[in-house]
Specification:
alpha/beta; Nucleotidyltransferase, domain 5; 38% helix; globular; disordered N terminus
């Protein structure tokens, strides 16, 4: 178990206990009203764990966070990687936490803790975090109150969330915002996606997709000339592709260019669906794109494809909250829920 203390607030009251539960790590934190993380810790999910083992590990981590809140918290916010029922907090077949299918952490813990428990999809809560404490707050400080914010995480997979008028848009069953599964390539050659469809944005532009495409290209005609060919297939990751592209490798640059084009098309679809005035990109792939100066290219594609001048009235930027966006968003959900 590793620990990080950013501020010492032992015994403070009013802090919110928040959790970001992903496929690999359970991370908990004590977060203040301004979105500052005052304490945080993380623990790996037990390998091949049962539902009970996973829940017990997460509860132990949550108890640590509550203790750092002075033993009392006005509410608990939980961001989970996977679909979540907006009303009951039940998880729907979470891809990386399948043992938790059907489990409602809200029902499980609310009575025991004696405080409200808010559970949401991690990308949706990330959007809320950015709205209140990240890029949205920065925009407000500059005199531009955002009306509709769309957050897209481009990492191992691609997900998203929408905040409209300060409220999360979750859809009838809490499943809205699955932007990674819009179809971009509908040809017979479209790559399969883990969701069961083919040609999804996630299958074309995620970190996983970039690595897969690189392995395929290196093994194909002309691939031997790339610096990536010197690596074992298992060692080719999105990070190595970005590094090679930054060093001038033409094959790696072509792969990144393909991902940029897919993102440009997908984000233009988002413009037409939600008409946002603030679009925020997060995740590890976004970091790589920024380092290679690709954000301007994405913006140019969106402007070129937008159906009207009014659709171009938006700001495209990167996350201000980094890896903490989900956990800060979980705390923001508590604040919003309590009014």
């Amino acid at each position: 178990m590793s620990s990080s203390r950013e501020t010492t607030r032992s015994g403070s009251t009013g802090l919110i206990a928040a959790m970001d539960w992903g496929g690999t790590w359970i991370r908990t934190a004590a977060v203040d009203a301004n979105g500052n993380i005052c304490w945080q810790d993380r623990s790996p999910n037990p390998k091949d764990a049962s539902q009970t083992q996973l829940v017990d590990t997460a509860r132990a981590m949550l108890d640590l966070a509550i203790a750092q809140c002075g033993g009392d918290t006005p509410g608990v916010g939980i961001a989970v990687a996977g679909p979540v029922d907006a009303e009951t907090g039940a998880l729907f077949d979470p891809p990386n936490l399948r043992a938790l299918d059907g489990v409602s952490l809200k029902t499980l813990w609310e009575g025991e803790l004696g405080c409200p428990v808010y559970v949401g999809n991690d990308a949706t809560l990330a959007a809320l975090g950015e709205f209140h404490h990240g890029a949205g707050r920065e925009a407000r400080e500059q005199g531009a109150e955002p009306k509709t914010l769309v957050y897209m995480t481009v990492s191992t997979g691609i997900g998203g969330g929408v905040v409209d008028g300060g409220q999360m848009f979750v859809g009838a069953g809490g499943l809205a915002g699955e932007v990674g599964h819009m179809t971009i390539d509908y040809t017979d050659a479209a790559p399969p996606c883990l969701c069961g469809n083919s040609g999804c944005l996630e299958a074309l532009a995620s970190g996983t997709a970039i690595a897969r495409i690189a392995r395929e290209r290196v093994a194909g005609p002309g691939g031997s000339g790339s610096s990536l060919a010197a690596k074992a297939a298992s060692a080719i990751t999105s990070e190595t592709v970005f590094s090679a592209a930054g060093s001038g490798d033409s094959l790696a640059q072509e792969i990144i260019d393909g991902a940029v084009k897919a993102l440009g098309v997908g984000l233009t679809n988002i413009l037409h669906l939600y008409n946002p005035d603030l679009v925020v990109l997060g995740g590890g792939v976004t970091v790589g794109l920024e380092e290679l100066g690709q954000m301007g290219k994405i913006r140019a594609m969106m402007d070129e494809r937008a159906m009207s001048q009014h659709h171009k009235d938006f700001l495209l930027t990167s996350s201000r909250l980094g890896d903490s966006v989900g956990i800060i968003g979980a705390a923001a959900a508590v604040q919003q829920g309590l009014g």
